[in-house]
Predict the structure.
Amino acid sequence: MLTRAGKPARREERDDPMALSKDDRARLIKSGKLTRTALAAAHMGTRVTSHSGEDAASAEASLPGDINDYLRGALLVEDAGDGLVQPYRFSEKQLRYLDSVGRGRRARATSGICLALVTTGNEVSFDCHVTGTLDPAHPLYAEVMEHLGSLGRAEDGLIDGIDAVVEGGQAHTVAVHDGRITVRFDNPEHLPLEVRIYLPLIMSVAVGRLASNGTAAPAPHRGYLLALGDSITQGFVVGCPSLSYPALLSAELGLGLVNQAVCGYVFDKKTLAGMKTLHKDPPAAITVAYGTNDWGRKGSGKEIRHDASAYLDRLCKLFPNTPIYVLTPLWRADEGDEATRAGIPSRKSLSWVRRAIERACRDHANVTVVDGANILPRSPLMFADGRLHPGSTGAGIVAEALAAAVRSGGRVEVGGHEPIAALAPSPAPAPGDATTAGRLDAVDAESLSRPGAPGTHREFDRLVRTVWRLRQEDGCPWDREQTHESLVRYMVEEAYEAAEALRAGDASHMTEELGDVLYQVVLNSQVATEEGLFTIDEVCRTIDEKLVRRHPHVFGGVDAETPEDVARIWANVKRRERETAGGTAKEAETGLLDSVPRAMPALMQCQKISTRAAKAGFDWDDVSGVWDKVREERGEFEREPVGSQTRALEFGDLLFSLVNVARMEGIDAEGALAQSNEKFRRRWSCMEGLARERGCDLDTLSTAELNELWDRAKQGEKRS
């Protein structure tokens, strides 16, 4: 990030909401328009610092794959020599045309392009070479610096930089310079975190030799936002690349970004030629923001209207199924100035230009108009130059307005893939959940980066809505009457039926029975939602958090080579969970076996109890000791009178001992008995069939005849 003094500026002293007057700030806070900007400024408190040269040595572990695997937002990448590549956000054909109209240099700026990875380290470094510099003599730059100086903050004038964003939280802006650039951030548990390094907005750089001090992989490819427009969209003088309005908007929507805005440009359909790559993989959404330069450069109102219509016609033909959001020109502090109006070739007002753009949009079903005139507070403080180009606060408000328009439009489709999500406002996370949510997002990002990773599941959302509908006043009388207590028996029954289907291996039966179990989960969650207890999202998030937390050997860089290692890790994590929960004296006295559900089937409960006791040291040295116990319990059972309660209790002790044999042998007692039950069912069914072949029933046969049929059934199983 460059300053007048040539020194990096401190993020916390940049153009922020605190620069507003008290009245303006209070009004914006009340309207909610500063929310996103505040988040963008504070983010998650991740600390990132920049380093160069020898300080970068610890981050020199090269990442797998080519650097192209980590670039996002680039349509064309050229070899720049010395291990560097030069990314471009336009195709080769688009660049040739922009060169021909004198916009090639600005089009080669790296706005919106980033390096994206998921890493377990706390450092990322890369080589940087500046290929397109700023022109300090340019009148617009001088205008910005003069404005900032009038606010007493010229030393902190933000022109351009490189941003490191960790887990969606803005961390630090690094000065653009040649050489090695290293960013460091907090990651004490070595969890997989997504890091996005945004390249400059109005400068151009070549990059190479991306490295991290932890394991790493490219961040997942997402659907993307295509941003079209002029300097405001490119991010001119916002200062921090991740705080341009397209960067903020794409992050808000969970999308990647291709920014094809060019400083000083206008509606020109010829720039849309050469979009072959984008046409094959359409964007999830498109924003268009031209008009203010058309107002200042076009010779007539007819020309402005014609060019806007031709541009939008061509864009809609290219992307007929993509929602397009057209932002009419933002309010300008100088649009009513007589001197400004005198220099307008068309002699039309900027309001007329806005209306002309709106008319050009009317005939396109996939186009939504967003009125730019009324988005920003009409204060020069919203603009980095005091009149035209929004600063970071203004950009944040523009991003909010466009995000609201996208949400109101419904779903945003990822081109060629499943829709990512309904863009409805998400429930606010509970206090203290931001870090956990960020970690879950990072784990998910790493999973999504792998070939074959599951996508979104629209059918699940449809099921949730169906169950919700059943519980409405005009829904199903039976479903409406259910409570958690009444549903217990159904949950148990469906679980048993699902277990039976799993053992049978019948796919269609499994699908049905697992669906019945899922219905019970969703129905119980809906009941809880109505009672204000929790939602289905909380159910999913809770189990996801637990799985990630209890598998640090998968998600946290902890080594585990054997099942025994996994068991030890699992136990340690559970112990830390109890410690973190801050157990009371009462909790500390909870018995070892209290967590084993008494409603669990007796055989399964028996094995769980004996396992817990064994972990506490209450166990035999080997299985021979258990067999001795079995013989002892059998003797005690046989000595009791037949039919007595004591004999029944001793039989229970005998079974308990046999279950310990199963535990020592590594056998699932419940599963083993279930298999024996199924085997007996098969053989008995076979015996019934053999009896029918003889023309008789089993109950008419002698014991010897029954034994004969049993042996034939056994032999038949062996042959099959």
Q: What stands out?
A: The radius of gyration is 34 Å. The chain has a mean pLDDT of 79.
